[in-house]
Design a protein that fits this description.
This is DNA helicase. The protein has 27 helices and 23 strands. With about 700 residues, it is α/β, with parallel strands linked by helices. Bound molecules: adenosine-5'-triphosphate (ATP). The site of adenosine-5'-triphosphate (ATP) has 25 residues, from helix 5 and helix 7.
């Protein structure tokens, strides 16, 4: 391994050579940037000028059918030319984005490989994106390109990578990592082993920041298995706390977007995150990699998007058997009179329940399910149109329009209401009525003419909560998102089987990446990994699995503590790659007063240690009391609506701390009363709490500490 000091750099020919290569690459990138920006500007000017002259030259002659055809052909040709400009502009804009990204750090690694087949040595520089020089030679190779796999495999000598399922055998002669800022080479390292990976250690040594960072340059071998995993219906990743599950998930999204560049858009990817605070914590990772964010939502946001207004997401603790019974019952479902509702808007009934019932009867020969509902929806749509048509013809409407302000008339009609003929009056009235009742079409589209509550109760054989309501709607109307291509579920151990079934039904064509840690299941009734596998296996046929056992977050001392708290199977394999910091502090107090003093001292020490510290309490209901104990200490209580600050001391409940990390963590009470030794959920809650800390952990106990801590 070469890690040149400043002095050594002067005399190190390799360093000088690499600095020269970096300077040349940087210069080339700047040149590409300039050329591309110029091309963009010139093309924009030319397009504007051409559009103007093309528009002037257009004959706009519709006198005869032939003239009209010719005019349309001219228009189409003009459109094609404009499309061509737009395409070139988009490509150039993309290129400029890549240059901007690479100018921050042109590359982070170099590999020298010799393919067995050709025996011709290749030198490749790997960066956050790929780009070719003006001479068309590859300047930087994208980290997601097939050959870059060799870098992540981390072994010198004979190795291989895959292209379209074909294995390419190569000899890796050199694997060099770089610490680079713009055009300055700080150091280079020739390495293969993670534990001696200086770039990784340097990256881990940086203070943690308010936002999660991409780990592109330092993805480890076991993590790379997940990032570059072949496309499978369901990939289940089990990883200990801080093993990089979330980081790996973000890298995989970037990888998939690259792999499927031609047809996968970020909006076809969905990310289920534990809470909005966490969603904000990760929102910079993909943009930092030059990619757009996927649709990120919590379970509550997902559920509420489909539930009737005012209905909460409800409890997810619904037995799976109940949903399975509903699935069986829907096969025998018959609609009955009470299953239909009026569509009413602003006090006007636009579609009567009885109309919906009649439409349903018309399709009575079909099973009461998605196909029949789709046909009914279409017919009710037409009925709504005719209803609005007759409303437009009624006298009252004309008075309503006349009473509108000038601004409203212009907004809705695009002109003032001043019809010269009956026909014109009716046309304008129709525009007005359609605008006023536009929401009614959405109501028809959302099948609000169906009484899902009543149908759901029949399917479930009793009263239903929000989750059953949602599932009943999916079963009966076919509500789903068949366009979604990938669904990522972080913290999967916190989902119940029922929630997973709802997600699997809604995203029925998507491929799933599920990441979690059974030791971090902090709620009752959530699915075990075996249950996750059985459920997803039954729906999608195949569940592939990967494991992550190294902690990149916590010091060895903290990792050793949560490894002791892990369930037996995982305990032995858990390790940390960070340098040692300090022992975990356990402060035993006998009185409430002592505990408060200890807490205040711990908070002061955490503040002193720098970075971001958190006081993590078990429940939301503990917040008020702890905040009172810490009054005057400048501790910031956090809620769902907040964003994580870069430094200071925050106070938050465990549920909100999920997935996050802090330089210091203070736990106000780890006594037997709060974490009873006989309860497994207490073990998991303690494991999750302590594993939020990267460097400093202080546990305070009022009375005897929980038996889960053993002889700490
Ligand atoms: N290969 C890596 N290189 C650099 N940093 C890494 C790497 N892998 C993980 N990390 C860092 O380790 C920390 C933990 O990562 P992450 O939050 O993704 O883990 P996790 O498994 O999702 O954690 P948890 O389940 O405990 O919430 C983060 O600070 C992340 O940046």
């Amino acid at each position: 391994m070469a890690q040149p000091t400043d002095n050594a750099q002067m005399n190190d020919p390799v360093f000088a050579e690499e600095q020269a290569h970096l300077s040349a690459t940087y210069g080339a990138l700047q040149q590409i940037g300039r050329t591309t920006a110029k091309a963009l500007e010139e093309a924009a000017l030319k397009a504007a000028a051409d559009k103007e002259s093309m528009a002037d030259e257009l004959a706009r002659n519709f006198a005869t059918a032939d003239d009209a055809l010719e005019t349309w052909a001219d228009f189409a040709a003009m459109d094609r030319i404009i499309d061509g400009y737009n395409l070139a502009q988009t490509a150039n804009a993309e290129k400029l984005k890549t240059v901007e990204l690479l100018l921050k750090r042109p590359y982070f690694a170099k590999i020298v490989v010799t393919p067995k087949s050709t025996g011709k040595q290749r030198e490749l520089y790997i960066g956050a994106a790929g780009i070719a020089g003006e001479d068309y030679r590859r300047l930087v190779v994208d980290w997601r390109s097939p050959v870059a796999e060799v870098y992540y495999n981390q072994s010198e000598g004979p190795t291989s990578y895959k292209v379209d399922g074909r294995t390419i055998e190569v000899e890796l002669q050199l694997r060099r990592q770089f610490d680079i800022d713009e055009n300055r080479l700080n150091a280079y390292f020739d390495t293969t082993v993670a534990i001696e990976d200086p770039l990784l250690l340097a990256s881990l040594a940086h203070e943690r920041s308010a936002h999660m960072r991409a780990i592109t340059a330092t993805i480890q071998r076991e993590q790379n298995t997940v990032v570059r995993h072949e496309d499978v219906p369901v990939l289940l990743v089990r990883g200990i706390a801080g093993s990089g599950k979330t980081s790996v998930m973000m890298q995989r999204i970037a990888y998939l977007l690259f792999q499927n560049r031609s047809d996968l858009k970020a909006q076809d990817v969905f990310l289920l995150s534990p809470n909005p605070l966490f969603a904000r914590y990760i929102e910079d990772v993909l943009p930092e990699m030059g990619e757009a964010n996927p649709e990120t939502l919590t379970w509550e946001q997902f559920a509420q998007a489909h539930l009737p207004k005012g209905r909460g997401a409800g409890s997810p603790a619904v037995p799976l058997q109940r949903l399975e019974a509903m699935e069986r019952a829907v096969r025998q479902l018959e609609f009955s009179d009470g299953d239909f509702c009026d569509i009413t808007l602003f006090g006007t009934r636009l579609i009567a329940a009885d109309q919906a019932r009649k439409v349903s009867e018309k399709y009575g020969h079909l099973p009461a399910g998605p196909h029949r509902v789709a046909l009914m929806r279409e017919e009710l749509w037409s009925k709504l149109e005719s209803r609005l048509g007759s409303m437009a013809a009624s006298d009252g409407i004309q008075d309503e329009i006349s009473a509108l302000s000038i601004e409203e008339q212009l907004r809705i009609l695009g002109e003032l209401y001043d019809p010269s003929t009956e026909q014109e009056a009716r046309e304008q009235a129709l525009v007005y009525v359609r605008d006023r009742f536009a929401e009614a079409f959405d109501m028809v589209e959302r099948d609000e003419w169906l009484n899902i509550e009543a149908i759901g109760r029949r399917l479930a054989g009793g009263n239903i909560g929000s989750l059953e309501w949602l599932f009943a709607k999916m079963l009966v109307t076919g509500l789903s998102n068949p366009e979604a291509r990938f669904v990522m579920v972080d913290e999967v151990q916190d989902y119940t089987e029922a929630q997973l079934l709802v997600l699997a039904t809604y995203f029925r064509r998507a491929h799933f990446l599920l990441l979690g840690d059974p030791n971090q299941a902090i709620d009752e009734h959530t699915a075990s990994f075996n249950q996750v596998k059985a459920l997803m296996g039954a729906r999608f046929g195949q569940v592939s699995e990967c494991g992550l056992m190294t902690s990149y977050r916590s010091s060895p001392e903290i990792t050793a503590l949560f490894a002791r708290l892990a369930a037996d199977g995982a305990r032995m394999e858990i390790s940390s790659v960070r340098p040692a910091v300090e022992e975990v502090q356990l402060v035993r107090c006998e009185t409430a007063d002592e505990q408060q003093q200890a807490l205040r001292r711990a908070v002061a020490a955490a503040r002193e240690a720098g970075g971001l510290a958190a006081v993590v309490v078990p429940w939301k209901s503990d917040l008020k009391r702890t905040a009172a104990q810490l009054e005057g200490e400048g501790v910031l209580p956090l809620t769902d609506a907040d964003t994580l600050p870069a430094e200071g001391v925050v106070l938050l409940p465990l549920k909100l701390a999920k997935g996050l990390e802090f330089d210091s963590v203070v736990v106000p009470d780890v006594s037997e009363t709060v974490f009873p030794a006989g309860e497994d959920i207490a073990r998991r809650r303690l494991y999750t709490t302590v594993s939020r800390a990267t460097s400093h952990l202080t546990l305070i106990s009022k009375g005897a500490p929980t038996g889960w801590l053993g002889s700490l």
